[in-house]
Queue: 2 jobs
Job 1
Amino acid sequence: MQLLLAILSGVLFAAGVFLILRRSLMRLVLGLIFIGHAANLVIFTAGGLKGAAPAIVAEGARQLEQPYADPLPQALILTAIVISFGLFAFFLVLIKRTYQASGLDDLDELDGRKG
Amino acid sequence: MQFLTIILLLFAVAAAAPVVVRFTRDWSGWLLALFPAGLFVWGITRLPDVAAAPLLERVAWIPSLGVSLSFRFDGLSALFFLLITGIGALVVIYAGGYLKGAPRLGRFHAFLFLFMAAMLGLVLSDNLIALFVFWELTSITSFLLIGYNHESVESRRSALQALLVTGAGGLALLAGLILIAAAAGGTFEFSELLQRAEQVHASPLYTPALFLVLLGAFTKSAQAPFHFWLPGAMAAPAPVSAYLHSATMVKAGVYLLARMTPLLGGSAEWHYLVTFAGAATMLVGALMAFAQTDLKRLLAYSTVSALGMLVLLIGIGTDLAAKAMLVFLVVHSLYKGALFMVAGSVDHEAGTRDVRRLGGLLRVLPFTGAAAILAALSMTGFPPLLGFIGKELMYEAKLQAPAAALLLLASGVLANAANIAVALIVGIRPFLAARERRPAGVHEGGIAFWIGPLLMGSMGLLFGLFPDVLGEVLIEPAAAAVRATQLDVDLALWHGVNLVFLLSVFTVVLGVLLFALRRLARRFAGRVRWPALLTPTGLYHGAVGSLPGAAAATTRLMQNGSLRSYLVTVIVAVLILLARALLSLPAFPVEWTLEGVALYEYGLVLLIIAATVLVLVARTRLVAVAGLGVIGFGVSLIFIFYSAPDLAITQILVETLTVIIFVLVVARLPQLRKRSSFFTRLRDGTIALASGAVVTALALLAAEVQFRPSISGFFAENSLAQGFGRNVVNVILVDFRALDTLGEITVIAVAAFGVYALLKLRRTEDEIPDDLSASDEGKEEST
């Protein structure tokens, strides 16, 4: 499964890179979300995959017993998910405002290059 | 610490100079001159010690880099030390008279003393890096001195030209010095390098090091084709020219070559490069000088010629040549310093430097005139002046040169003859002949104006009459330092009528002949127009002139304002670096196995990939958002399968919100459409696929790499005991790493404020009347 997830991260990252290189602002947002997913999956995969062993101390135990899924990458990813959601929300509103103000959703046209 | 103290003292004097000038006004020159004069006397008292062995001193500066402020006071350093302080004292006195009442005299003296300190540091340094630092300091301070009249465009331009040429050479020198140290096994101390000269010669780094060091020395000492900055630097006030172009700045390159002779000299490359550069410069300078009419330009080009002679003698590389070089160094410093001051005085009094408008000045400028005549006679090499001994030695050295002796001798005679003509034009004719051209109202400007030139001129006579003193006390230890062996220097005025003497006589005759033909030469030089790009000056101006254009082109290329081209640059650069690291691995340390993957897992991954493709090809906004939702929920499922319930919960929540917000906002955005050309899409697709491949490889590799022991065990053990929580991920976030979470919450809060502010902004603009609607306004701004 590790290989499969690695490939999936690669696919998501490639799609993200392709999208952020587009002229449409909307696609730029989509690309950022893709890259976020890819990064999360890379961290998740790199932390080692363990099925059915959440990092929760069992009732009555003093501490986590082996086997357990590594809690550290999960904590990192949790932060990343929330932060990228904040980024996404702000960016989306920014695009909306830009479009409202200029009638443009095209990076090149916003630069005054074309159109 | 004595040498460091001397240099620091001069820096302190530089700092104090403006105050001294403010309080002592007209006497400031005399007062400030006490410092270099005192150092001169101190230097003389140290000479007996130097004759025995060089004085060494080391003060740690940057020990970790092998850079120290170490000083070496041997014969060569002592000779330069005395020239710099001795002529320095006279220049300071002269400047006090010449710039009397000038509004920036204080600043001028500050620059002058800074320069003097840098120059002394340069000739005293034993550490190559310290030497380089002082070398660059002389470039910078000479920039300040040459550009003293900063209101004048000409002055600023020539200061910049001198700085750029010598600064570029300085960079080459730094590279060369580092290569020398590398070739010798890491030391920057000259005293230690001297023991390893053979090792340096044998190293493959020798040739590049030699080229770079020579480049530094040639630019500094105005060797052809870098000679053009020196005549340009004539825009400086006369005291600056008298100092920089007689004994100091331009001699720094000569000093470096002499200093490096025991270390780098002796090879065929050294011999041919140095000799050729010197010979070419000697001829170019002499012939160009001869056709000038401006006193200072005449002197400037003849300085170029003299520098060529010195370099040529270093290139010949025999004991006799070293002796001749050192004697001529003293000769030239004395007469050139004197003549530059004389030229300044004449300019100051008569208001012109054009030799065609000067004459009969001896009667009105008796002391200056006497100084000029003494210096000019020394320059022509007339007995019994020191210049005569210098020239005889030079001819002798060329006669005994190991190769091309006749050629060197012939070019030497020609250059000397041209210099004799220059000496007659500058030092003799304005004072003795053509009285009817004497400008009106000329009179001596005071003792400060003539004491310096007269002293230097008399020194030429004195040393000519008693050459033994000079030879034994100064030249012998200096020659020992250049040749790295004890030499016996026996100077004498009269050698009898021999070949060299006949050559001297012939040179003088030829010089007088050239003097008579000077008008013809001027007319000829006035007619010849070189194509601009064939002259060094033209090349320099072309290069400097093209800089703004090149900078603009680079900026257009690198900073074109397009976000996407920046992204492409960043992504491709990172890709190349990562790919290089990945490809350099001997074997990929991960097994490519899909064993044990359940069918539903295949299905899930394929579903996400299909949704990704859907987003990529989507033409309507809603399809794209739907695809995005599928991906988000698919990733949540992966989190669930692999024991990350908290991640899954958060992801589902965020994904739901994302899709809702998207749908709400997207309705107001235009539909997606194809906008890029096929080529652009192909390029971006290639970059995207390559980055995806690298990320896949990294994800696989990262699982195998563990640089530090994992800290997860700590959390697992202490979650309940210290954090009082059973869900370890939660305890990490709200307890162990609570500050991080606080930061995260802050970010979200800031983003929320931003969203709120942007949405609120819209509401106020809605109240604006329709004909001034927001979109029209924005369109105007964007065009």
Job 2
Amino acid sequence: MNMIYMLIGISILLALIFLLAFFWASKTGQNDDTYTPSIRMLFDEEATGKADQKSDEDHL
Amino acid sequence: MSKIKTLTVETQCYHCGEDLPFSPYILADKQFCCLGCQGVYQILSSHNLENYYAYNDVPGQTQKTQTPRLEYLDEPTITTDLVDYQDEETTVITFYIPAIHCSSCIWLLENLYKINPAIVQSRIDFLKKQVVITFKNKALSLRELAETLSRIGYEPLISLQDVVKKQQNDVSDRQLIRKIAVAGFCFGNTMLLSFPEYFGLSGLEQQFKDFFGWLNLAFCLPVVFYCARDYFSSAWVNLKNGVLNLDFPLALGIAVMFLRSAAEIFSRSGAGFADTLCGLVFFLLVGRWMQKHTYHHLSFERDYRSYFPVAVTLLKDNKESPLPLNKLKQGDRILIRSNEIIPADAILLNGTAKLDFSFVTGESIPVEKVLGEVVYAGGRQLDGAIELEVIKPVSQSYLTRLWNNETFTADKDRIKTFSGTASKYFSIALLAVAIGSGLFWLFKEDPSKALASFTAVLIIACPCALALSSPFTLAAVLSIFDKNKFYLKNTAVIEELARIDTFVFDKTGTITNPEAANFTFNGKITDLQKQWVSDLARNSGHPLSRELVKWIALPKQYTALDYQEKVGRGISGLIDGQLIRLGSTTFLGIDPIPQLQGSTVHVMIEDQYLGYFLSSQQWRNGFKDLVLNLGRHADLHLLSGDQEHDRKSLIPFFPSIQHMHFRQSPQNKLDYIKTLQNKGHKVLMFGDGLNDAGALKQSDLGVAVTDNINNFTPGCDAILDGSSFSRIPNFIRQAKDAVRVIHMSFGISLVYNALGLFFAVQGTLSPLIAAILMPASTITIISFTSIAARLYARKNHLL
């Protein structure tokens, strides 16, 4: 049963790592803007669609 | 489908989507409404940025408005206040760009480096409408950057005030979120470690009991000393000032819970209340976070500094140079160009001043000034450039002095909230019960039970649910209002709204609709002639022409030939073979007609004078119903800076003539509100311009009405979009219902408290009961308040 000491220690350590990761994310401003990246990821890498190929599918 | 598409594209500007004029600008098969739009397209296409048009139809902004003068951005004294960071090579600056509205905007503004290689990086924050640009300051000056942005239709809004306040909220916001994270982390872990105790440990597992206890206590340390720190300091400060607010019982509960848990764990007499403690702090912080809802794109604290330009053109030795506004001295000579705002009281030295003071006085008719006359700050020059000599520095001007009025320096945090009042009585009752039960057990000569019951009462009655009922209800109502385009500064405004018994309206721009004018025709005109007039006026960009076309509301039939426009005077052209001329009497060469109130458009067809269109202001949609509705329960007053010509038409709306006041100066308005308040009324003021700013601040609740929330609004407690003007009675009913919900949830949390107290006074409160009661009451309150607030919103037709 002494295994429990170690398991609990590891689980708390893991949780602490996540907490610190969250701190780091919040400090570097990753939570400041939660909306723009969701649109940004939808842009194509390089221009493929020409302007006159307007179609509903292209629209976000 | 494709046919319909091409049709719509052909009548719209490819860039901004506005209706095409008679002779559109054409470039590469695309049609544009003006040279500006075509220019933007040219810039974008020459830099391979046509994808801008692929992500959205007509993403651009109309380029018909003039670009501002940005010379002042070359002045280092001004720019150092604007940039975020600057070294020898690179500069980082954050611009606020109101035009940002769709995904194409993001795409284009993040590809700025393709237009100018000196731009290293640009990052958009869409919700805040901000873009952070890093650029090489050797190759590109700040002014060139701003001009580049303006040229592609994204003109940055630069004002000293908005720049100053910037980042402060972010820091405190982040800190709160960090505290929530820590509290949540500890809450989860303590709950995990407390469960074995609640389920009962077998003999074999007893060895873990101490281990779990110590760990729990360790988790409590950051929660009490880091996350809950604000509650202790706030309770202490308030106690010193003799105020019992809700933070006092909360801080007391947290402290007692921590001390008792520590004592139980040290003495091995029990498991302590670690998980209840962590959970309590966690929920409290979440409630605080809910209450902190902020609008990034709105500012409620604007004053004259964000209305005035950043810099003004100084004339010295016949040379023009930009000067920061705060450096402007008495005796300086300044040049004000068309459409610029006069920043300080000054004497007119040169040129014809035709000033629009509508924003300052509410008077809509432009004022003309002759040489040597004093011109007050805040007017917008409509005619050509004028030269002025400053007679008072900016901060001493008539307008700004009104703003710096002493009454306003006292902060408006005087709004009384229900939880504030209730917590006073709650704290006293709580202490009475705790001491009472402690004394009871002392008399029974059971000191250990006395201590147990005393602490248990403080723990179980810790008003967590009470502390959460207000923030959660009000946050729900705030988001409902937000969906209906009514933006409140903070949650306390809702409770204040429920108490209002007197409404004061400004006239111009507030109850009248600045967009839509109503016309009446004096004379005789046939429908066909109306058609001609409309088709001619369609070619003009003058606001009166646009309103006239909108009002006549006939589809285009004829195209005008030989179209000519004399700016600000009139237009002429051949329609259907007839020579039509529209405009002022001087333009048509006829005798002026005296004593007309409002703007006129005279009509002449083939040298025959038909008569004139007289524009009168139109009330906002639903104004009549609104007034009837509000008038039933509250007093209505009207304060207008305008002349009396609308008095007659307003009589049916306002119950008594004594409640209507015209020609009110900003100071008059402020004093009027004050007198109402001294009579014991709770006053809500609706206003829109700088002239109402004093009254808005003085009133118990100032609401700025605007048709475009990106426009300037004076400092206020709430901003209402003009399209929701008719919903005001619904908002007020909802605010009253919100207060009702708070009362009900207060009742519910009292029931939970009574239940806990039943165990507590007997000294038999176990950690398990506390661990069940606290989250149960919290979750009940959270779900009750948000559901009830939404149900009421549906009843009030707000959802």
